[in-house]
Specification:
Shape of chain A: elongated
Radius of gyration of chain A: 30 Å
Largest interface: A-B, 121 and 121 residues
Distance between the termini of chain A: 67 Å
Largest sheet of chain A: 3 strands, mixed
Oligomer: homodimer
Helix content of chain A: 55-70%
Order of helices and strands of chain A: HHHHHHHHHHHHEHEEHHEHEEHHHHHHH
Strand order of the largest sheet of chain A: 1-2-3
Structural class of chain A: mainly alpha
Number of helices of chain A: 23
C-alpha cells in the first residue's frame, strides 16, 4: 500500500520525463489511477508544471486535487486559470472546501472566486465565512440531505436520488419540520432496510446530539469521535438546522488541535502551516516570545545562586550537582504536567478531580523521589567517592543532595500537576503550563531547597 | 449540547435517588434518550449499581454501553452476568468490538466469552486475535458487505437489505471475485444513484487503496484521514479481502497514538489506561526508568562543572548564569525537536529532508540566538550592573555570557532537529528524542562552550 509515497522519487522522474517528451497522454494515464491526495503531494515538487498536470485531469479529479493542495499552490493555480476554468473547478467543489479555500486567499483572489461561483454557492460561502474561526459554523457544510417527517421511505429515497449528487454525504439524513427545526435523523441503512411505505417520522431517531454554530470546533470533533458518528448536525440559536460537520473534517480538526497543543507544550506559538512551508522569519516569530520570557525568568534562578555565593564558595562541590537537581526536577514536573494536560484535553480529567490528581501525584512523587535519591546516594558514595576518589563527597554532602532530590521531586510533581488544572479553571490554555514553564519554576524551587539543606546539614 | 457532561453531578444524584426509591421505570426513562458513550461515562461512578442499570436498558443499547465501558468495568459486569445474559450481549456486539474486549480480559473470562458466542463469531474473534497488536488485522472487522462484479444494482441492493443489519457499515461495499480477491468498491451513494439494471462491474471504482493485515494501525488510520475515506479494505498476502477498518476505529487509534507520542516526549513510558485509572505503582513504573537514566546522564554535566571548579572559584559570578544558559539551550532544543517529531509523525518531513531541516534550523537559530543575546546583554548591563549595582558584571563577563548564548542556541537547534531524524532513520521512535533527552545533551554542550568562552575572554 501507499505506493505513491514509496515511489515518490521514481514517479517524479517519470512525470519529468513525460513532460520533456511531451507525452501528455501517457502522463494522464499515469495519474488517473492515483488518489487526489497523492497527486496533490506530488504537485509540491512539480512547480510550474502544476497547471499543465491540472488540465490533463478529468475535472472531478482535478477539483479533488485542488482541495488537497496547500493554499500557496492553490493561489498560484487560480492565477493561472482562465475565468471559465475557475468556474469549472468551483462548480465541482463541496461547499465547505470552497469556504476553507476562500478563507486562506488574499482579498483579490477571493473577489475573483466569488464572482465566478454560482449565486447559491456565493451566498452559502458568505454565510460560512461569517462564523468565527475555530467554530462549528466555520467548518460545517450546508450541503446535507433534509427530509420531512411526513414523507414515506419511498419519497425519501426519491429525494435522495434527485438531490444526492450535490450533497457531501447521504449516509445520514436529517429530518426537519416546516420551520427548519431539527426533529430527527435517519441513517441510509435504516432507510434501505425499511419498507417502502414506512413513514419517516415513525422510523427516525429522535434522540439527537446537535451542536451550535458557535461551539468550539475541537469540542465538535471530539464529540464525533466519542459517539462514533459520521456527521453531527449544526443548529443556530433558534434550533434551526443550518449545516452538518462530517467526520473527515473532524479528523483534520483533531490533528490540527493536537499539533497546536504539542507546539504550546514546547513553548512555541502555534501556526497552521507545515514546517517546511514556514519561512525562517515566521518560525522565529513563533519561537522567540517564549524563549525571551523563559530566559528572563531563568535569571531569577541565577539570582538565587548568586545570593548563596558564599555558601557555594565554601563547598564548591555543591555546584557540580546543580544540573542534576535542576534537570531531575524539570523532568519530574514535565511528566506530571504533560500527563495532566493530555488528560484534560481528552476529557479524562476535569478540575473537579483536583485533589484526586494531587493525591495521586503525591504518592507517585514519594516513590519516585525515594528511588532517585537511593540510586543517587549509591552513585555518590560508590562511584564519585570510592571509584573516582573525590574526597569532597562526604556522607553529609550526599545527604544534602539526596534530601534535596526527594523534596524537589515532590514539589515538581505537585506544581506540574496543579498548574495545568488551575490554568484550565481560570480559562487559560493548560498546554502552556507544560515542561518549559514548569522547568523554570521548579529550577528555582530546587535551588532554594538545596541551599536550605546545605545550610542545615553542612552549617554553611 | 453535551448536556450529559454538564449536568453530570445532577444526573448522578437523580439516578441515586431513583435507586433508593426503587423507581426503576423512571430511571429507565431517564437513561433511554441518552447516548451509549454518556451512559458508560456515568457508570464509572455507579459502582455496584451498574449491573442493575444494565438490565434496565434495551439489549441493543445495553450492548453499546458495554462496548464503551473501561475494561475493568466490563470484567466486573461479565462476572455479574448469567450465561444467558452474556450470550445476549455478545450477540449484539460488532465483531471488532468483541475482539477488542476479549483482548483485554483475563484468560478465564475469555474462555467464558468464547464458550457463549456463536460459532461463527468465535471463529472470527480467534482470527482477529491472531494478528499482532497494533496491526491493521487487530483492529479490522470482518463484518462488511461484499458484492460480485456480475450482480446488477438491484441484486446488490437486495443483498444489502438482507445482510445489512449485521454489517458494521453499508456505506462502502466491496467487490470481490470468486477467489475473494478485492477488485473494486462502491459507495452506497453510487448504488442508490445508479439504475437498477446497471452492472456492479461497470459502475464500481477500480482504483483501490487497500492495506495489508500486518500494516501498522497508525499508518492505516493516517491513510483514512488523508484520503477522507469512511473505511479501508484489509487484504491478506494473497490480496484476498479479509476485513475492513472503519473511520471510528481510526479516530481512536489516532488519539491513542498521539497520547503515546506525547508521553514519550515527556519521558514517560506509554500506557493505554486513562490517568485516573492507573495505580500509583503503574504510574511509577512508567516514569522512573527515564528519570533514572536522565539523572545519571545529568551527572556528566556536573562533571563538567566540577572540572572547571577553579575557573568558577575565580569568577563566582559565572555560576549565577548557568541556569539561564542551560534552560535557554534546553528550550531551544525542545522547540526544534518537538517540531521535527510532529512533522515526522504527520508525514510532513522525511529523512530525505535532513539538510533542508538543518539549514532552516541554522537560520532560525542565528536570529533567535542573536535576539536572546542582545536582550540578555542589555539586561546584564542595565539591570544587573546599573540598577542592582553588581560590579562583577563587567562587559567581558557579559560578552562571555552572550557569546555562549548564541553558540548554545545554535547547537541546541541543530542537535534538537537532527536527533529525531537520525532516530527515525535507524528505526527508533523519534518521539524519544524530545525535550528531556535533548536537554541533557544540550546542558553539557552549553557548559563546555561557557567555560571555553570564559577561559578565552576572561583568561581563567
Amino acid at each position: 500500500m501507499f505506493e505513491a509515497q514509496a515511489h515518490r522519487a521514481e514517479l517524479l522522474e517519470k512525470i519529468e520525463d513525460f513532460f520533456n517528451r511531451k507525452r501528455y497522454a501517457e502522463l494522464r494515464d499515469l495519474l488517473l489511477p492515483m488518489e487526489a491526495a497523492d497527486i496533490a503531494s506530488l504537485c509540491a515538487d512539480l512547480d510550474e508544471k502544476v497547471p499543465v498536470v491540472f488540465r490533463l485531469l478529468p475535472k472531478e479529479l482535478a477539483a479533488e486535487v485542488f482541495v488537497e493542495l496547500d493554499s500557496d499552490e492553490q493561489e498560484l493555480l487560480i492565477h493561472s486559470f482562465s475565468n471559465a476554468e475557475l468556474k469549472e473547478v468551483l462548480d465541482e467543489l463541496y461547499l465547505d472546501d470552497a469556504a476553507d479555500i476562500v478563507e486562506e486567499m488574499p482579498a483579490g483572489v477571493v473577489k475573483r472566486i466569488l464572482r465566478h461561483c454560482d449565486p447559491e454557492m456565493r451566498k452559502s460561502i458568505n454565510e460560512i465565512l461569517k462564523y468565527p474561526e475555530d467554530s462549528a459554523g466555520s467548518i460545517m457544510t450546508t450541503e446535507f440531505v433534509d427530509l420531512k417527517a411526513t414523507m414515506t421511505v419511498e419519497d425519501a429515497l426519491k429525494r435522495i436520488r434527485r438531490t444526492g449528487p450535490d450533497k457531501e454525504t447521504i449516509n445520514i439524513c436529517y429530518v426537519i419540520d416546516e420551520r427548519r427545526h431539527l426533529i430527527g435523523l435517519l441513517t441510509i441503512r435504516t432507510l434501505l432496510l425499511a419498507e417502502e411505505d414506512d413513514v419517516i417520522g415513525d422510523i427516525m431517531e429522535r434522540n439527537l446530539i446537535a451542536v451550535q454554530t458557535l461551539d468550539d470546533q475541537e469540542a465538535v470533533a471530539r464529540a464525533l469521535g466519542k459517539y462514533d458518528f459520521l456527521a453531527l448536525p449544526v443548529v443556530d440559536k433558534e434550533d434551526r438546522l443550518v449545516g452538518i460537520v462530517t467526520v473527515d473534517d473532524a479528523i483534520d480538526v483533531l490533528q490540527e488541535e493536537v499539533t497546536e497543543d504539542i507546539e504550546k507544550m514546547a513553548a512555541i506559538l502555534p501556526s497552521d502551516k507545515p514546517y517546511l512551508k514556514t519561512s525562517t522569519l515566521e518560525t522565529y516569530k513563533a519561537r522567540i516570545p517564549w524563549l525571551l520570557l523563559l530566559m528572563i525568568s531563568a535569571t531569577f534562578t541565577g539570582q538565587i545562586i548568586a545570593s548563596f555565593e558564599s555558601a557555594l564558595a565554601a563547598a564548591t562541590i555543591l555546584t557540580a550537582y546543580i544540573p542534576m537537581l535542576m534537570d531531575s526536577g524539570g523532568n519530574c514536573g514535565s511528566q506530571a504536567s504533560v500527563t495532566v494536560i493530555r488528560g484534560l484535553s481528552l476529557g479524562e480529567i476535569t478540575f473537579a478531580d483536583f485533589f484526586r490528581v494531587l493525591w495521586k501525584e503525591l504518592r507517585v512523587a514519594m516513590v519516585c523521589g525515594v528511588t532517585l535519591a537511593a540510586a543517587n546516594f549509591a552513585k555518590l558514595m560508590l562511584v564519585d567517592r570510592l571509584l573516582f576518589g573525590n574526597t569532597m563527597v562526604t556522607a553529609p554532602v550526599a545527604a544534602v543532595i539526596c534530601g534535596t532530590l526527594v523534596c524537589t521531586v515532590l514539589c515538581a510533581k505537585l506544581v506540574g500537576s496543579s498548574l495545568p488544572l488551575l490554568a484550565k479553571r481560570i480559562g487559560f490554555d493548560p498546554a502552556v503550563m507544560a515542561s518549559p514553564f514548569i522547568t523554570t519554576i521548579v529550577d528555582a524551587i530546587s535551588l532554594l531547597i538545596y541551599f536550605q539543606f546545605a545550610s542545615a546539614i553542612l552549617g554553611l
